[in-house]
């Protein structure tokens, strides 16, 4: 089952940038990280997925079109920027949700207020950037929905806030095992700690979701007993270093690389998986985005 699907999503932003076409399927019961450098189109994608600026194509949430009432009631969205709430007090926004939102869980909201130490009667605009984000997170996560769309949710949060949000998201998945979370980021630590799947985004395009653990198996640094002629042309090779006594190669397709080496009786002295801090920048390079 998929919580979210989108087909041929295209959104043109003037003459300089085009999102898509985007085709995505987000499995139920998973956390998916959308990864891209600044300007890759992550915010534009989330605006399209949430229905704020849908563009062309079709987005469905639990089988309902994004414009249907059933779809709107099934997801919560925390955007990167939220100017429309800044002039309100948190208590006013709570009252609006409580009066008009059938998915509202007031006890959950009060728990968030206590956990985040949020002032209810102060205008959102008067809060710090981190507290503003906590306020919007509290509002959206107090809705009883099974899909969360979060655009850079950790941005502006201090270390305590980041830890709190991590625990909240993990608790959300424990309480709703058929739900899904999709969040945008460019920070490897967030991906490492939370994500089951990774979606690479570059220049308004995405690759299909890839399992984080499978990617971790593919990216390796390998030490060889001696230099090997032609190793630069092996599929998956990203870097070759022949400095020092032990040549090193870095690959994004360890299985294919090791097969090629074995066919030539090349001795491998050591192999080591790359951390996401090392592998994510490689995924975002032009060549890598086309091949992974």
UniProtKB/TrEMBL annotation:
Q: Where is the ABC transporter domain?
A: 4-228
Q: What is the native source organism of this protein?
A: Salicibibacter kimchii
Q: Which CDD domains match?
A: ABC_DR_subfamily_A (cd03230)
Under Gene3D superfamilies, the record lists: P-loop containing nucleotide triphosphate hydrolases
InterPro entries attached here? AAA+_ATPase, ABC_transporter-like_ATP-bd, ABC_transporter-like_CS, ABC_Transporter_VariousFunc, P-loop_NTPase
Q: Which UniProt keywords apply?
A: ATP-binding, Nucleotide-binding, Transport
Protein name (record): ABC transporter ATP-binding protein
What Pfam families does the record tag this protein with?
Answer: ABC_tran
């Amino acid at each position: 089952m998929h919580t979210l699907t989108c087909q041929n999503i295209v959104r043109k932003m003037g003459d300089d940038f085009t999102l898509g076409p985007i085709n995505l399927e987000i499995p139920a019961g998973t956390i998916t990280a959308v990864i891209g450098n600044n300007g890759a189109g992550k915010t534009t994608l989330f605006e399209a997925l949430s229905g704020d600026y849908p563009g062309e194509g079709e987005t469905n949430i639990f089988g309902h079109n994004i414009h249907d009432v059933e779809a709107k009631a099934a997801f919560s969205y925390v955007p990167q920027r939220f100017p429309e709430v800044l002039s309100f007090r948190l208590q006013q926004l709570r009252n609006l949700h409580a009066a008009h939102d059938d998915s509202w869980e007031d006890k959950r909201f009060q728990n968030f207020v206590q956990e985040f130490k949020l002032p209810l009667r102060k205008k959102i605009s008067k809060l710090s950037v981190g507290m503003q984000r906590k306020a919007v997170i509290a509002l959206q996560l107090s809705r009883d929905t099974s899909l969360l769309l979060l655009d850079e949710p950790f941005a502006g949060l201090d270390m305590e806030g980041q830890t709190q949000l991590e625990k909240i998201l993990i608790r959300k998945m424990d309480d709703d095992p058929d739900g899904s979370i999709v969040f945008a980021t460019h920070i490897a630590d967030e991906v490492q700690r939370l994500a089951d799947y990774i979606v690479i985004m570059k220049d308004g395009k995405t690759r299909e979701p890839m399992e984080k653990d499978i990617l971790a198996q593919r990216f390796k640094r390998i030490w060889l007993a001696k230099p090997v002629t032609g190793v630069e042309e092996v599929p998956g090779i990203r870097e070759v270093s022949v400095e020092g006594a032990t040549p090193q190669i870095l690959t994004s397709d360890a299985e294919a690389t090791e097969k090629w080496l074995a066919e030539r009786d090349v001795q491998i002295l050591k192999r080591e998986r790359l951390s996401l801090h090392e592998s994510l920048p490689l995924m975002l390079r032009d060549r890598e985005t086309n091949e992974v």
